[in-house]
Amino acid sequence: MEKIRMTTPLVEMDGDEMTRILWKMIKEELLLPYIDLKTEYYDLGLEYRNETNDQVTIDSAEATKKYGVAVKCATITPNAARMTEYHLKEMWKSPNGTIRAVLDGTVFRTPIIVKGIEPCVKNWEKPITLARHAYGDVYKNTEIKVPGAGKAELVFTAQDGTEIRETIHQFKGPGILQGIHNTDESITSFAKACFNYALDTKQDLWFATKDTISKKYDHHFKDIFQDIYEKEYDAKFKEAGIEYFYTLIDDAVARVMKAKGGFIWACKNYDGDVMSDMVSSAFGSLAMMTSVLVSPSGVYEYEAAHGTVQRHYYKHLKGEETSTNSVATIFAWSGALRKRGELDGIGELMEFADKLEKATIQTIESGKMTKDLALITSLKDVTVLNSENFIKAVKETLERLSE
Ligand code: NAP
Ligand code: MG
Predict the structure, then answer these.
(1) 307 Cα: distance to centroid of ligand 1 (angstroms)
(2) How far apart are CA 239 and CA 257, in angstroms?
(3) How far is residue 392's CA from residue 30's CA, in Å, rounded to a whole number?
Protein backbone atom coordinates (compact mmCIF):
# COMPACT_ATOMS: atom_id res chain seq x y z
CA MET A 1 0.00 0.00 0.00
CA GLU A 2 1.31 3.41 -0.89
CA LYS A 3 1.80 5.86 1.95
CA ILE A 4 -0.14 9.13 2.09
CA ARG A 5 2.06 12.03 1.09
CA MET A 6 2.21 15.32 2.95
CA THR A 7 3.30 18.66 1.54
CA THR A 8 3.76 20.86 4.63
CA PRO A 9 5.33 19.57 7.85
CA LEU A 10 3.42 19.38 11.12
CA VAL A 11 5.17 20.96 14.06
CA GLU A 12 5.78 18.02 16.38
CA MET A 13 6.31 18.86 20.07
CA ASP A 14 7.48 15.81 21.96
CA GLY A 15 6.99 15.69 25.73
CA ASP A 16 7.59 13.85 28.98
CA GLU A 17 7.12 10.67 30.99
CA MET A 18 4.32 8.21 30.13
CA THR A 19 2.89 10.33 27.35
CA ARG A 20 6.35 10.42 25.70
CA ILE A 21 6.29 6.59 25.68
CA LEU A 22 2.78 6.58 24.18
CA TRP A 23 3.84 9.21 21.62
CA LYS A 24 6.51 6.92 20.17
CA MET A 25 4.17 3.91 20.08
CA ILE A 26 1.43 5.90 18.35
CA LYS A 27 3.84 7.09 15.68
CA GLU A 28 5.32 3.66 15.08
CA GLU A 29 2.10 1.64 15.10
CA LEU A 30 -0.58 4.00 13.86
CA LEU A 31 1.05 6.69 11.72
CA LEU A 32 4.38 5.79 10.10
CA PRO A 33 3.10 2.63 8.34
CA TYR A 34 0.40 4.66 6.56
CA ILE A 35 1.70 8.21 6.17
CA ASP A 36 4.91 9.55 4.72
CA LEU A 37 4.95 11.63 7.89
CA LYS A 38 6.52 15.04 7.55
CA THR A 39 7.18 16.80 10.82
CA GLU A 40 9.46 19.48 12.13
CA TYR A 41 10.48 17.93 15.42
CA TYR A 42 10.93 19.87 18.67
CA ASP A 43 11.88 18.02 21.82
CA LEU A 44 9.95 19.68 24.66
CA GLY A 45 10.99 16.93 27.07
CA LEU A 46 12.17 18.62 30.27
CA GLU A 47 15.81 17.56 29.82
CA TYR A 48 16.14 19.27 26.47
CA ARG A 49 14.18 22.33 27.62
CA ASN A 50 16.71 22.65 30.42
CA GLU A 51 19.63 22.13 28.05
CA THR A 52 18.41 24.89 25.71
CA ASN A 53 17.33 27.25 28.52
CA ASP A 54 13.77 26.70 27.30
CA GLN A 55 14.59 28.19 23.88
CA VAL A 56 13.22 25.03 22.24
CA THR A 57 9.72 25.86 23.55
CA ILE A 58 9.82 29.35 22.04
CA ASP A 59 11.22 27.95 18.77
CA SER A 60 8.42 25.39 18.59
CA ALA A 61 5.80 28.11 19.09
CA GLU A 62 7.43 30.26 16.39
CA ALA A 63 7.44 27.27 14.04
CA THR A 64 3.73 26.80 14.74
CA LYS A 65 3.15 30.39 13.63
CA LYS A 66 5.10 29.68 10.47
CA TYR A 67 3.46 26.38 9.46
CA GLY A 68 0.03 26.80 11.07
CA VAL A 69 -0.49 23.39 12.72
CA ALA A 70 1.21 21.72 15.68
CA VAL A 71 0.67 18.55 17.70
CA LYS A 72 1.91 18.54 21.28
CA CYS A 73 2.65 15.77 23.77
CA ALA A 74 1.99 16.47 27.47
CA THR A 75 4.92 18.08 29.25
CA ILE A 76 6.09 18.51 32.83
CA THR A 77 5.58 21.93 34.38
CA PRO A 78 8.49 22.03 36.80
CA ASN A 79 7.96 22.47 40.55
CA ALA A 80 10.42 22.14 43.45
CA ALA A 81 10.46 18.34 43.27
CA ARG A 82 11.25 18.42 39.53
CA MET A 83 14.15 20.79 40.16
CA THR A 84 16.01 18.03 42.00
CA GLU A 85 14.67 15.15 39.92
CA TYR A 86 15.93 16.69 36.65
CA HIS A 87 18.79 18.83 38.04
CA LEU A 88 17.24 21.94 36.49
CA LYS A 89 19.09 25.23 36.06
CA GLU A 90 15.86 27.12 36.64
CA MET A 91 12.21 26.40 37.38
CA TRP A 92 11.18 26.74 33.73
CA LYS A 93 7.71 28.07 33.03
CA SER A 94 4.81 25.93 31.85
CA PRO A 95 5.38 25.20 28.14
CA ASN A 96 1.65 25.61 27.52
CA GLY A 97 1.79 29.08 29.06
CA THR A 98 4.80 30.03 26.92
CA ILE A 99 3.19 28.71 23.73
CA ARG A 100 -0.08 30.46 24.55
CA ALA A 101 1.74 33.74 25.09
CA VAL A 102 3.36 33.48 21.63
CA LEU A 103 0.23 32.33 19.78
CA ASP A 104 -2.31 34.40 21.79
CA GLY A 105 -4.93 31.73 21.69
CA THR A 106 -8.11 30.34 23.20
CA VAL A 107 -8.27 26.74 24.41
CA PHE A 108 -11.14 24.53 23.23
CA ARG A 109 -11.77 21.25 25.05
CA THR A 110 -14.03 18.55 23.65
CA PRO A 111 -14.90 15.14 25.12
CA ILE A 112 -14.59 12.06 22.92
CA ILE A 113 -17.89 10.20 23.05
CA VAL A 114 -18.05 6.40 22.88
CA LYS A 115 -20.90 3.95 23.47
CA GLY A 116 -20.39 2.29 26.82
CA ILE A 117 -18.91 5.36 28.52
CA GLU A 118 -22.08 7.32 29.19
CA PRO A 119 -22.06 10.89 30.47
CA CYS A 120 -23.51 11.31 33.96
CA VAL A 121 -26.00 13.78 32.46
CA LYS A 122 -28.24 11.40 30.53
CA ASN A 123 -29.58 13.90 27.99
CA TRP A 124 -26.07 14.85 26.75
CA GLU A 125 -26.03 13.05 23.42
CA LYS A 126 -23.33 15.09 21.71
CA PRO A 127 -20.11 16.60 23.02
CA ILE A 128 -20.08 20.02 24.67
CA THR A 129 -16.96 21.96 23.75
CA LEU A 130 -15.75 24.39 26.36
CA ALA A 131 -13.91 27.51 25.19
CA ARG A 132 -12.07 29.19 28.03
CA HIS A 133 -10.70 32.72 27.88
CA ALA A 134 -7.19 32.28 29.22
CA TYR A 135 -6.25 35.84 30.18
CA GLY A 136 -6.95 38.20 33.09
CA ASP A 137 -9.79 38.56 35.62
CA VAL A 138 -9.00 36.94 38.98
CA TYR A 139 -6.00 35.13 37.44
CA LYS A 140 -4.12 38.44 37.22
CA ASN A 141 -5.52 40.15 40.30
CA THR A 142 -4.18 42.50 42.95
CA GLU A 143 -5.45 41.93 46.46
CA ILE A 144 -5.33 43.81 49.72
CA LYS A 145 -6.18 42.51 53.16
CA VAL A 146 -7.83 45.55 54.72
CA PRO A 147 -6.57 45.94 58.30
CA GLY A 148 -9.32 48.24 59.61
CA ALA A 149 -11.58 51.23 58.98
CA GLY A 150 -10.80 53.37 55.92
CA LYS A 151 -11.79 54.21 52.39
CA ALA A 152 -11.09 52.00 49.37
CA GLU A 153 -10.96 53.62 45.92
CA LEU A 154 -10.52 52.48 42.33
CA VAL A 155 -8.22 54.91 40.50
CA PHE A 156 -7.16 54.98 36.85
CA THR A 157 -4.45 57.47 35.88
CA ALA A 158 -4.21 58.17 32.15
CA GLN A 159 -0.86 58.88 30.44
CA ASP A 160 -1.64 62.61 30.50
CA GLY A 161 -2.23 62.46 34.24
CA THR A 162 -6.03 62.72 34.27
CA GLU A 163 -7.76 60.52 36.79
CA ILE A 164 -10.91 58.45 36.98
CA ARG A 165 -11.81 57.72 40.58
CA GLU A 166 -14.58 55.62 42.15
CA THR A 167 -15.21 54.74 45.78
CA ILE A 168 -15.31 51.01 46.29
CA HIS A 169 -16.25 50.93 49.96
CA GLN A 170 -16.05 52.88 53.22
CA PHE A 171 -14.71 50.27 55.59
CA LYS A 172 -15.87 50.48 59.20
CA GLY A 173 -13.60 47.58 60.17
CA PRO A 174 -11.29 44.94 58.62
CA GLY A 175 -12.10 43.33 55.27
CA ILE A 176 -10.68 42.38 51.88
CA LEU A 177 -10.20 44.01 48.46
CA GLN A 178 -9.49 42.75 44.97
CA GLY A 179 -8.58 44.56 41.73
CA ILE A 180 -8.97 42.76 38.40
CA HIS A 181 -8.68 43.74 34.75
CA ASN A 182 -8.95 42.64 31.16
CA THR A 183 -8.06 44.26 27.84
CA ASP A 184 -10.09 44.91 24.69
CA GLU A 185 -7.32 43.26 22.70
CA SER A 186 -7.53 40.00 24.64
CA ILE A 187 -11.34 39.90 24.72
CA THR A 188 -11.41 40.59 20.97
CA SER A 189 -9.07 37.73 20.15
CA PHE A 190 -11.06 35.44 22.46
CA ALA A 191 -14.28 36.38 20.65
CA LYS A 192 -12.76 35.88 17.21
CA ALA A 193 -11.25 32.52 18.13
CA CYS A 194 -14.70 31.39 19.35
CA PHE A 195 -16.54 32.60 16.24
CA ASN A 196 -13.94 31.00 13.94
CA TYR A 197 -14.05 27.72 15.83
CA ALA A 198 -17.86 27.65 15.65
CA LEU A 199 -17.69 28.15 11.87
CA ASP A 200 -14.93 25.58 11.57
CA THR A 201 -16.86 22.89 13.42
CA LYS A 202 -20.36 24.03 12.33
CA GLN A 203 -21.68 24.26 15.86
CA ASP A 204 -23.72 26.90 17.67
CA LEU A 205 -21.80 29.20 19.99
CA TRP A 206 -23.08 30.09 23.46
CA PHE A 207 -21.55 32.85 25.53
CA ALA A 208 -22.55 33.93 29.00
CA THR A 209 -21.46 36.44 31.65
CA LYS A 210 -23.07 38.14 34.64
CA ASP A 211 -23.73 41.44 32.86
CA THR A 212 -26.86 42.25 34.88
CA ILE A 213 -24.72 42.61 38.02
CA SER A 214 -21.40 43.63 36.47
CA LYS A 215 -22.83 46.40 34.32
CA LYS A 216 -19.49 47.66 33.01
CA TYR A 217 -16.98 44.82 33.32
CA ASP A 218 -19.01 41.81 32.19
CA HIS A 219 -21.18 43.98 29.97
CA HIS A 220 -18.07 44.97 28.06
CA PHE A 221 -17.39 41.32 27.19
CA LYS A 222 -20.97 41.01 25.95
CA ASP A 223 -20.67 44.19 23.87
CA ILE A 224 -17.37 43.21 22.26
CA PHE A 225 -18.75 39.79 21.30
CA GLN A 226 -21.96 41.32 19.93
CA ASP A 227 -20.13 44.00 17.98
CA ILE A 228 -17.69 41.59 16.32
CA TYR A 229 -20.50 39.15 15.63
CA GLU A 230 -22.64 41.74 13.83
CA LYS A 231 -19.77 43.23 11.85
CA GLU A 232 -17.89 40.12 10.83
CA TYR A 233 -19.77 36.90 11.48
CA ASP A 234 -23.55 37.30 11.22
CA ALA A 235 -23.68 36.51 7.49
CA LYS A 236 -21.18 33.66 7.78
CA PHE A 237 -23.12 32.08 10.65
CA LYS A 238 -26.41 32.30 8.70
CA GLU A 239 -24.76 30.71 5.69
CA ALA A 240 -23.39 27.88 7.86
CA GLY A 241 -26.81 27.43 9.52
CA ILE A 242 -25.45 28.02 13.01
CA GLU A 243 -26.37 30.45 15.77
CA TYR A 244 -24.65 32.80 18.22
CA PHE A 245 -26.53 32.85 21.51
CA TYR A 246 -25.84 35.12 24.49
CA THR A 247 -27.39 34.60 27.91
CA LEU A 248 -26.67 35.09 31.61
CA ILE A 249 -24.18 32.65 33.14
CA ASP A 250 -26.70 31.17 35.59
CA ASP A 251 -29.22 30.69 32.78
CA ALA A 252 -26.49 29.08 30.65
CA VAL A 253 -25.62 26.59 33.41
CA ALA A 254 -29.28 25.63 33.78
CA ARG A 255 -29.70 25.24 30.00
CA VAL A 256 -26.50 23.21 29.60
CA MET A 257 -27.82 20.63 32.06
CA LYS A 258 -30.99 20.22 29.99
CA ALA A 259 -29.35 20.42 26.56
CA LYS A 260 -28.48 17.61 24.15
CA GLY A 261 -24.96 18.95 23.55
CA GLY A 262 -23.36 19.62 20.18
CA PHE A 263 -22.41 23.26 20.81
CA ILE A 264 -19.52 25.41 21.97
CA TRP A 265 -19.77 27.06 25.36
CA ALA A 266 -17.53 30.14 25.63
CA CYS A 267 -16.68 31.11 29.19
CA LYS A 268 -14.81 33.89 30.92
CA ASN A 269 -11.61 32.73 32.60
CA TYR A 270 -13.00 31.71 35.99
CA ASP A 271 -16.25 30.26 34.65
CA GLY A 272 -14.20 28.25 32.13
CA ASP A 273 -11.85 26.95 34.82
CA VAL A 274 -14.71 25.70 36.97
CA MET A 275 -17.07 24.53 34.22
CA SER A 276 -14.46 22.66 32.16
CA ASP A 277 -13.72 20.36 35.10
CA MET A 278 -17.43 19.80 35.66
CA VAL A 279 -18.12 19.10 31.98
CA SER A 280 -15.09 16.82 31.52
CA SER A 281 -15.72 14.72 34.61
CA ALA A 282 -19.42 14.44 33.73
CA PHE A 283 -18.45 13.12 30.29
CA GLY A 284 -16.36 10.35 31.87
CA SER A 285 -12.60 10.91 31.92
CA LEU A 286 -9.79 13.41 31.37
CA ALA A 287 -8.13 10.75 29.22
CA MET A 288 -11.05 11.11 26.78
CA MET A 289 -10.75 14.87 26.37
CA THR A 290 -9.10 16.62 23.46
CA SER A 291 -7.74 20.12 23.59
CA VAL A 292 -6.87 22.56 20.84
CA LEU A 293 -5.38 26.01 21.08
CA VAL A 294 -6.70 28.27 18.33
CA SER A 295 -5.08 31.62 17.71
CA PRO A 296 -7.00 34.55 16.23
CA SER A 297 -4.73 34.41 13.18
CA GLY A 298 -5.90 30.84 12.53
CA VAL A 299 -3.00 28.80 13.92
CA TYR A 300 -3.82 25.46 15.60
CA GLU A 301 -2.06 23.45 18.31
CA TYR A 302 -3.55 20.07 19.22
CA GLU A 303 -2.92 18.15 22.45
CA ALA A 304 -4.48 15.86 25.06
CA ALA A 305 -6.13 17.55 28.04
CA HIS A 306 -4.34 15.37 30.61
CA GLY A 307 -0.77 15.54 31.93
CA THR A 308 2.22 13.24 31.60
CA VAL A 309 0.65 10.55 33.86
CA GLN A 310 3.62 10.50 36.20
CA ARG A 311 2.39 7.65 38.44
CA HIS A 312 2.14 5.27 35.49
CA TYR A 313 5.58 6.33 34.23
CA TYR A 314 7.24 5.38 37.52
CA LYS A 315 5.59 1.96 37.27
CA HIS A 316 6.85 1.69 33.71
CA LEU A 317 10.40 2.54 34.85
CA LYS A 318 10.21 -0.26 37.41
CA GLY A 319 9.36 -2.64 34.58
CA GLU A 320 5.75 -3.00 35.71
CA GLU A 321 2.85 -3.15 33.28
CA THR A 322 0.85 0.06 32.70
CA SER A 323 -2.63 0.58 31.33
CA THR A 324 -2.45 4.20 30.22
CA ASN A 325 -5.16 5.51 27.95
CA SER A 326 -3.73 6.91 24.69
CA VAL A 327 -7.05 8.03 23.17
CA ALA A 328 -6.66 11.78 23.74
CA THR A 329 -3.10 11.68 22.36
CA ILE A 330 -4.23 9.71 19.29
CA PHE A 331 -6.95 12.33 18.75
CA ALA A 332 -4.39 15.13 19.07
CA TRP A 333 -2.56 13.55 16.11
CA SER A 334 -5.73 12.92 14.10
CA GLY A 335 -6.90 16.49 14.73
CA ALA A 336 -3.59 17.92 13.56
CA LEU A 337 -3.38 15.64 10.50
CA ARG A 338 -6.95 16.48 9.49
CA LYS A 339 -6.28 20.21 9.79
CA ARG A 340 -3.03 19.84 7.77
CA GLY A 341 -4.96 17.92 5.11
CA GLU A 342 -7.64 20.60 5.05
CA LEU A 343 -5.14 23.45 4.67
CA ASP A 344 -3.09 21.65 2.01
CA GLY A 345 -6.05 20.13 0.16
CA ILE A 346 -4.98 16.53 0.83
CA GLY A 347 -8.25 14.59 1.06
CA GLU A 348 -6.49 11.31 1.82
CA LEU A 349 -4.94 12.76 4.95
CA MET A 350 -8.33 13.97 6.18
CA GLU A 351 -9.87 10.56 5.45
CA PHE A 352 -7.05 8.87 7.32
CA ALA A 353 -7.67 11.09 10.37
CA ASP A 354 -11.36 10.16 10.30
CA LYS A 355 -10.52 6.49 9.98
CA LEU A 356 -8.02 6.58 12.85
CA GLU A 357 -10.62 8.15 15.14
CA LYS A 358 -13.26 5.67 14.02
CA ALA A 359 -10.87 2.76 14.67
CA THR A 360 -10.09 4.07 18.16
CA ILE A 361 -13.77 4.45 19.05
CA GLN A 362 -14.73 1.08 17.56
CA THR A 363 -11.96 -0.66 19.50
CA ILE A 364 -13.38 0.64 22.78
CA GLU A 365 -16.96 -0.07 21.75
CA SER A 366 -15.94 -3.67 20.98
CA GLY A 367 -14.96 -3.98 24.65
CA LYS A 368 -11.18 -3.54 24.36
CA MET A 369 -9.98 -0.69 26.56
CA THR A 370 -7.51 0.51 29.17
CA LYS A 371 -8.18 0.14 32.89
CA ASP A 372 -9.41 3.71 33.49
CA LEU A 373 -12.31 3.11 31.09
CA ALA A 374 -12.94 -0.48 32.19
CA LEU A 375 -13.70 0.91 35.66
CA ILE A 376 -16.50 3.15 34.40
CA THR A 377 -17.93 1.38 31.35
CA SER A 378 -21.45 0.00 31.10
CA LEU A 379 -20.28 -2.62 28.58
CA LYS A 380 -20.41 -6.22 29.81
CA ASP A 381 -17.65 -8.20 28.03
CA VAL A 382 -14.59 -6.11 28.62
CA THR A 383 -10.95 -6.95 27.89
CA VAL A 384 -8.56 -4.73 29.85
CA LEU A 385 -5.46 -4.01 27.78
CA ASN A 386 -2.10 -2.57 28.73
CA SER A 387 -0.81 0.65 27.13
CA GLU A 388 0.91 -1.07 24.22
CA ASN A 389 -1.74 -3.68 23.50
CA PHE A 390 -4.47 -1.05 23.35
CA ILE A 391 -2.58 0.77 20.60
CA LYS A 392 -2.05 -2.57 18.83
CA ALA A 393 -5.78 -3.29 19.09
CA VAL A 394 -6.53 0.10 17.49
CA LYS A 395 -4.10 -0.83 14.72
CA GLU A 396 -5.98 -4.10 14.09
CA THR A 397 -9.27 -2.21 13.82
CA LEU A 398 -7.62 0.34 11.52
CA GLU A 399 -6.35 -2.43 9.25
CA ARG A 400 -9.82 -3.97 9.15
CA LEU A 401 -11.41 -0.61 8.24
CA SER A 402 -8.87 -0.23 5.41
CA GLU A 403 -9.62 -3.60 3.79
P1 NAP B 1 -2.04 13.69 34.97
O2 NAP B 1 -0.90 13.32 34.14
O3 NAP B 1 -3.20 14.30 34.27
O4 NAP B 1 -2.53 12.38 35.74
C5 NAP B 1 -3.30 12.39 36.94
C6 NAP B 1 -3.99 11.05 37.12
O7 NAP B 1 -5.10 10.98 36.22
C8 NAP B 1 -3.14 9.84 36.77
O9 NAP B 1 -2.32 9.45 37.84
C10 NAP B 1 -4.19 8.84 36.37
O11 NAP B 1 -4.87 8.31 37.49
C12 NAP B 1 -5.19 9.72 35.63
N13 NAP B 1 -4.88 9.85 34.19
C14 NAP B 1 -4.56 10.99 33.54
N15 NAP B 1 -4.37 10.75 32.24
C16 NAP B 1 -4.55 9.42 32.08
C17 NAP B 1 -4.47 8.56 30.96
N18 NAP B 1 -4.16 9.01 29.74
N19 NAP B 1 -4.71 7.23 31.14
C20 NAP B 1 -5.03 6.77 32.36
N21 NAP B 1 -5.13 7.53 33.45
C22 NAP B 1 -4.90 8.85 33.31
O23 NAP B 1 -1.59 14.67 36.10
P24 NAP B 1 -0.35 14.56 37.13
O25 NAP B 1 0.14 13.16 37.23
O26 NAP B 1 -0.82 15.27 38.31
O27 NAP B 1 0.75 15.44 36.44
C28 NAP B 1 1.90 14.90 35.81
C29 NAP B 1 2.63 15.99 35.09
O30 NAP B 1 1.84 16.45 34.02
C31 NAP B 1 2.96 17.21 35.95
O32 NAP B 1 4.35 17.44 35.91
C33 NAP B 1 2.19 18.34 35.30
O34 NAP B 1 2.97 19.51 35.29
C35 NAP B 1 1.97 17.86 33.90
N36 NAP B 1 0.76 18.36 33.23
C37 NAP B 1 0.92 18.70 31.92
C38 NAP B 1 -0.17 19.10 31.16
C39 NAP B 1 0.04 19.44 29.72
O40 NAP B 1 1.12 19.31 29.20
N41 NAP B 1 -0.99 19.83 29.02
C42 NAP B 1 -1.43 19.16 31.76
C43 NAP B 1 -1.56 18.80 33.10
C44 NAP B 1 -0.46 18.39 33.83
P45 NAP B 1 -4.43 6.97 38.26
O46 NAP B 1 -3.07 7.24 38.81
O47 NAP B 1 -5.48 6.84 39.31
O48 NAP B 1 -4.42 5.84 37.27
MG1 MG C 1 -9.15 24.06 36.93
Answers:
(1) 4
(2) 28
(3) 8
Looking at the CA of 79, name the nearest ligand. Answer: 1
Give the pTM: 0.89
Give, for ligand 1, the residue of 93, 306, 314, 372 to mutate: max count of ligand atoms closer than 8 Å to Cβ.
Answer: 306
Q: Are 302 and 291 in contact (CB under 8 A)?
A: yes
Contact by Cβ (8 Å): 138, 269:
yes
* pLDDT tens for each residue of the chain, 403 residues long: 789 999 999 999 999 999 999 999 999 999 999 999 999 999 999 999 999 999 999 999 999 999 999 999 999 999 999 999 999 999 998 898 889 888 877 889 999 999 999 898 999 999 999 999 988 898 888 999 999 999 999 999 999 999 999 999 999 999 999 999 999 999 999 999 999 999 989 999 999 999 999 999 999 999 999 999 999 999 999 999 999 999 999 999 999 999 999 999 999 999 998 898 889 888 878 889 999 998 878 899 999 989 999 999 999 999 999 999 999 999 999 999 999 999 999 999 999 999 999 999 999 999 999 999 999 999 999 999 999 999 999 999 999 998 8
Enumerate residues 6+ apart whose C-beta is below 8 A from 203: 129, 242, 262, 263, 264
Count of other CB atoms within 10 angstroms of residue 21: 22
| Best probe residue, ligand 1, of 91, 289, 301, 308 (max atoms within 8 Å of C-beta) | 308
Cα(306) to centroid(ligand 1), Å: 5
Give the integer Cα–Cα distance in Å for 103 and 283. 29
